[in-house]
Amino acid sequence: MQSFIVEHYLQKNVDVYCGGPDTFQGIVEACADGVLTLRKEDKYTHIAIDKIIAIWEK
């Protein structure tokens, strides 16, 4: 999943679904060591890749 995200979504605006009410939005800044980093309005969200159910470009 990590290499897929880097290849297809790096520096793109995405939505990330992790189940239930957990949806995150932002620009993919990095994806390394099992962690996806999103940036939104100069704030960063770090998501464990193994918790991601779906990701799509906005």
From TrEMBL:
InterPro entries hit by this protein: DUF6897, MM0924_fam
Superkingdom to which the source organism belongs: Archaea
Protein name: Uncharacterized protein
Source species: Methanomethylovorans hollandica (strain DSM 15978 / NBRC 107637 / DMS1)
